[in-house]
Design brief:
Number of domains: 2
Oligomer: single chain
Number of strands: 21
Distance between the termini: 45 Å
Strand content: 25-35%
Order of helices and strands: EEEHEEEEHHHEHEHEEHHEEEEEEEEHEE
CATH topology of the largest domain: Rossmann fold
Number of helices: 9
Structural class: alpha+beta
Helix content: 25-40%
Length: about 350
């Protein structure tokens, strides 16, 4: 099977008033993540690419093979698209055992039953579920069923690998193990790969390039490092674990747009409208007013606490909402809880400014 890239211009207007307008380009051997919150249009994108929903306008092609083009009245049905898909709801065959489910794709392409079974077993072993080969889907846990669905998509040798939230049903430990196995497969798979996810960890670790989808439109594209360094929207900043604000910088004084607050910055060269980012671990919390090197300190209140393993994310209330990452030990030592009054500080050198010609947070 010839390896080709994906070129898709997707324009769809649903009956409920939602519109999706995006362009996707994925080179062979490249993993792209479509990352966005619920309701952004990720599932609609899956439906269009898989053939469950036709375009209103635009064009979808794998190399020279056109899958959907309303202008030429071209529409290839799902069963002829050669796309390996892992759906959120698995769609396994309950009457077949696990190995037969995974072998179904190769067999439907003319591979002998023996060879298809061998291929199926190799992918089951890769994903750590080789011992489930003789089980039926109704006896599987959600995580096990998801891994079987992933193995089935891999085994069909697709022209496009489409992964719709492939790790969403798994617990944290299993997700980490499966992510490693998935990465091993993606490194070997020569075709284009599209990962649909709401989890930034999956996107940042698995994808070569990320498309951020918000309200039916792509708001930013880039590598994980590019998005971390220069998030274009507040949603992107939150995904990257950054605090993002828009404002105006004048000789190192940053006046925020949406809050009655001013920061002192070490950056005196980036003038005019700016995007200001602050890493959560760059902000210090104090029980009393701090003195010394920080040029920015203010009194605030704890809004929420979110345990995240070896760190706890503390969300601060007014005058400026900020996420701060500290250790659970520090939380205990300061006896932090929602409503606790404290001081926050950040050094001027920890404020990172990028020029902005418009407010991307709206």
């Amino acid at each position: 099977m010839t390896v080709s890239g994906l070129d898709a211009h997707i324009s769809v207007a649903r009956d409920d008033g939602f519109s999706l307008e995006i362009d996707l380009h994925i080179e062979p051997g490249t993993t792209v993540a479509l990352l966005g919150p619920n309701g952004a249009g990720k599932s609609t994108t899956v439906d269009v690419l898989s053939g469950a929903l036709s375009l209103d306008a635009g064009r979808i092609a794998l190399g020279e093979h056109v899958l959907d083009d309303p202008a030429t009245d071209t529409f290839v049905p799902p069963e002829h698209r050669h796309i390996g898909i892992v759906f959120q709801d698995y769609l396994l065959f309950d009457h077949l055992d696990v190995q037969a489910n995974v072998a179904f794709g190769p067999q439907s392409q003319g591979v002998s039953a023996e060879a298809a079974g061998s291929t199926a077993q190799s992918y089951l072993d890769l994903l750590g579920i080789g011992d489930l080969a003789g089980r039926r889907p109704p006896s599987l846990s959600g995580g096990q069923a998801q891994r079987v669905a992933l193995a089935r998509a891999m085994a069909s040798n697709p022209q496009l690998l489409l992964l719709d939230e492939p790790l969403a049903a798994l617990d944290i430990e299993t997700r980490t193990q499966l992510r490693r196995g998935l990465q091993q497969h993606l490194d070997r798979y020569e075709g284009p790969r599209l990962l649909i996810t709401h989890d930034p960890t999956d996107a940042f670790l698995l994808a070569d390039r990320i498309y951020i989808l918000e309200a039916g439109s792509v708001t930013q594209t880039g590598t994980s490092d590019e998005i971390r360094r220069q998030p274009a929207t507040r949603y992107a900043a939150a995904l990257a674990g950054l605090n993002l604000f828009s404002g105006v910088n004048d000789d190192g004084v940053v006046v925020l747009d949406n809050f009655d607050f001013t920061f002192a910055s070490a950056d005196t060269k980036t003038t005019g409208p700016v995007l200001l980012t602050i890493r959560p671990n760059a902000i210090a919390l104090h029980g009393t007013e701090p003195h010394g090197s920080p040029r920015n300190s203010w009194r605030t209140t704890v809004a929420t606490l979110e345990p995240l393993g070896d760190i706890t994310r503390v969300v601060l209330d007014l005058p400026i909402p900020l996420s701060v990452d500290i250790t659970p030990g520090a939380v205990a030592a300061m006896e932090l809880r929602p409503g606790t009054e404290l001081w926050a500080s950040v050094k001027a050198t920890e404020l990172h400014l990028n020029s902005a010609t418009e407010d991307p947070v709206s």
